[in-house]
Amino acid sequence: MILVLNLKMNLTKTSIVEYENFIHNKKVIVLPQYPYLLLFKKGSYALGSQDVSKFAKGSFTGEVCAKGLKGLGVKYVLVGHSERKEHFNETLSDFKMKMQNTIDNEMIPIYCVNQTAEEKESDPELKLIEEQLEALPEFVKYIMIAFEPTWLIGSTDEELDIKHIEKVILKIKDYLVERNINHSIIYGGGITPDNVDILKNIQGNEGFIMSSSALERDKLEIIYDKIK
Q1: pTM over 0.70
Q2: Please, which residues bridge with residue 209 across strands?
Q3: What would the pLDDT profile of 102-121 be if each residue is shown by its tens digit?
Q4: Count of alpha carbons within 13 Å of 146, Cβ hemisphere only?
Q5: In this structure, what DSSP letter does residue 228 have?
Q6: 148 is annotated as an active-site residue
Q7: Which residue among 20, 81, 83, 90 is the active-site one?
Q8: What is the spatial distance between Cα 88 and Cα 127, in angstroms, rounded to a whole number?
Q9: Handedness of CA 215, 22, 223, 8 (dihedral sign)
Q10: If 0-12 CB within 10 Å is exposed, 13-18 middle and 19+ buried, where does residue 74 land?
Q11: What span, in angstroms and rounded, lies between the C-alpha atoms of 139 and 99?
């Protein structure tokens, strides 16, 4: 199964080197902060970026272009995380541009499809899930989709609705299959060593994206062993 480790805005230079040593021989996708990308080079892991500019090139101070990430050995790019929507007001149009730039530079987008607790109750037909999928660029050959219920991101205490998670994942899968898009679908939110066995057996689920549990090495070790 696929395991994506989203480190977000965590760890110092010293601790990131220690973390790299910890995952060095693990087959995972690791997403460190931009400044630490060069500290991940030669392990069994694949390197990913937490974001990318929607602009391919130009005078956009502070932005990081897809071509620049490709030159650092990045293979995957996270696009559409709910935190980008909430804190930076990014839109589906922004995400489409980011995915296109990623694909144009021969990297693989990990596109986050989110759902709030309110949407879970008010959108039983999952129309808002499909709306997010419609942001996929045309002629995409392969995409990784990460389904993340926003109320579970960073939490390990909330009870999981396994049937609902499976319903959403299968909805995403049907959408992609109908359009002949090769894909992998992974899940993120509230993953712990205690529930990973149940989550990994959800129909259509091919892995996980983790943040909080990714930073706790004892939990990560257990989860890694269980899914690998």
Answers
A1: yes
A2: 4
A3: 999 999 999 999 999 999 99
A4: 27
A5: -
A6: yes
A7: 81
A8: 24
A9: positive
A10: buried
A11: 12
Indicate if the pLDDT at residue 122 is higher than 70. yes
Q: ∠ CA 182-187-190 to the nearest 5 degrees?
A: 175
Instruction: Give the number of other CB atoms < 10 A from CB of residue 98.
Output: 26
Question: Residues with Cβ < 8 Å from 126, sequence gap 6 or more?
Answer: 167, 168, 171
Please give the pLDDT value at position 156: 64
pLDDT band at 157 (very low <50, low <70, confident <90, very high): low
Q: Given a cut of 70, is residue 163 above it in pLDDT?
A: yes
Of 20, 83, 90, 148, which one is the catalytic site residue?
148
The answer to whether the Cα torsion of 34, 74, 202, 194 is positive or negative is: negative
**CA-based nearest residue to 43, from 32, 35, 51:** 32
Band of residue 100 on the pLDDT scale cut at 50, 70, 90: very high
- What angle (nearest 5°) sits at the alpha carbon of residue 8, between those of residues 193 and 170? 55
Task: Compute CA distances 76 → 24, 101, 110, 135, whole Å.
Answer: 17, 12, 7, 18
Q: Which domains does the chain have, with CATH numbers?
A: 2-227 (3.20.20.70)
